[in-house]
Every structure is written in C-alpha cells, then in structure tokens.
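Bit of a strange request maybe. I'm writing a small parser for structure token strings and I need a real example to test against, not something I typed by hand. Could someone generate the tokens for this chain?
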Amino acid sequence: MSEVKGRPRFVEGGWVLIAAALLLLTVMFWALAPALLRMVERGPGDGINPSTYGVNIEQPRLPQTAAIATAMLHRDMVPVLDAPPAILNGKEVAQAVDTRDQYLVSSDAVIGVSINGDHRAYPIRILHIHEVIHDTLGDIPIAVTWHWPSASPRVFDRRLNGDPLMLGVSGLVAGGTQLLYPRNNTPDSTAPPLVSQWTGEFVTGPSATLERVPFHLMDWAHWLSTHPTTSVVGEVPGLEKRYDKGDPNAYYRSTGLLFDQPDPPASHAPKDPVAVVSAGDETRLITPESIAKAGGVESVTVGGHPVIARLAQRPPRIEIEAPTAVQVQQGLWHAAAHWESD
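Reply from user aminoacidic:
Good idea to test on real output. This should exercise your parser:
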C-alpha cells in the first residue's frame, strides 16, 4: 500500500518557513530603516510655528521689513558637512575633465577661498545639498555657507570668543535668507540663538557677529586659472546621485518663492541676482540692468577700488572681481532688498 501524503511535518518544512519569515523581516527592516531612523533623529519643528524649532526667537534684531518664518518641516533637515571627506588636487581635477573621473567642468560654479596662502574651491553642486561646510583653511576654522533659495554665498571665520562654532540649519528664515544656529557653545538649558546667513550677525540671544572671510563666487575655470595651486572639496561617498539631482535651476527659472516673506520693492524682479559692493563710506548696487547697460561687463570704482562685474548663470549670479578691501554681498533681490535696505 502506498503511503498517504499530507501536510509536511515541521521537521520536514518548518525551517523553510522560518527562513522565509526571517528573509521577509530583513527586507522590511532594510526598506523601512531609513524612514524609522529619520523619525528617531528628526529635529524639533512642526513646519508651521517657529517657536517649535528649539531655538531662541525672542526679541529678534532684524530689518524692519523682515520676520522669522518657517522654511523647512523641522530643524536640521539639511545634512551639514562637518568636515570635508576628501580634499582633491585642483590640477588632477582639471586633468580628469575628459575622463569618466570628471568631477568639475570649466563652467561649474565654485566658492573660492584663500587664507594664508592656502586656496580651496567649494563646488556649488556640493553646497546645494549641504548648505554649510565646516573646514579649516590656512589654520583658520571657517564655515562656507550657501543658501540656494536666495543664491547667497557667505564665508565666515567660525570662531566666537576663540572657540570654533559648529553651525546648523535652523529650518527658519528671515527676510528671504537662511537662519543658522550654533550647535555647540550653548548651555544645555538654553535655546541656541539664531545667526543670519546674510550678515553673520546673531539676530537673537547675545549680540555678536561672525567675522566675514573674503571669497570669490566664480566658474571653476576662472578660479583655477588664477589659483593654480588650489585644492578642491570632494564628495561624500554614497551621495553622488543626490549631488547630480540637486541642481535647483528650475526654481531659479520660476517666479515663485519657497516661503512667505514681505514683498521686496518692485524696482527689480524678486529673483534677479544682485551684488552689493562696499568700501569705505561708499556702497553700490550692481544689477543685471546696470551690467547690460555697460555692454556685458561693468567696471566701476567703489571707495577708490576698481570693481569688475559680470552676469553668470547656473546659479544666477553676478561675479565680482575686486580687491579684498571691497566687501561683496551677492544674492537674489528678494533677500538683498531686506538686508541691504540702507
């Protein structure tokens, strides 16, 4: 008589079911872990009320036309780069332009910084993602910052009373530009103050200002030709695709803004790139219109110093050539109109 076959006993097939269940749990954990970690690590903030972001918003010192507003769902959504993972040789980067190792092309925008004979380029495509890069150049701790919604670059000596600050992105804005905050140097029982990315001034809490470091916002080819010994900040491994897809060029081509703010004066379009150049007691506003009237290159004298201005794109900007004695503020009109109203 043949044996009647029924359900497999546990010893015969149970291990298969257990293995399948473990595999399913592993796949589910792998898929859900990033979201779960984001929930655990999520910074304070509800996307609506600035008071929920865990920073000091009391008695803000702001331009009359500016007010603190939310710009992100919560604090620390931006992955600030606390230290560059790699410092590349500028000449090697340039030589790789025609190979699969291409990192920068000649028209790519960079923030170039020179301190004590050391030169370094910070690609805008990297700053689109990180917005703040902490670094040390020429033995000086610096913060290279880029607020892409206002196309505003700034570099600061990040020492306050001799101690280097580590800055974070608060998720808040004022007058169209980013508000940063110190992630250290604040007592645990005290909400950290806010710092204007436009000026480096503490707009809440103690009265203090981060010292500005001169820099140049220009294309890579120009920076390399004038600083042949430059180094270049490299990518964070694993974020290559994010860098490639992080170009906000579509935002610059549109007319809308990302967050609520008072309308700037209608003398210029909100997303027109402008540059405010100052030296001594003289300040001049350079605009796309003034450059066009000058035939594409505007040459002026500010405080006795020569200034050359050109219009460039991706990101929209006015590139300035001027001695370090000239202070340069670059950004879009919707921010400059508030912070440079004087």
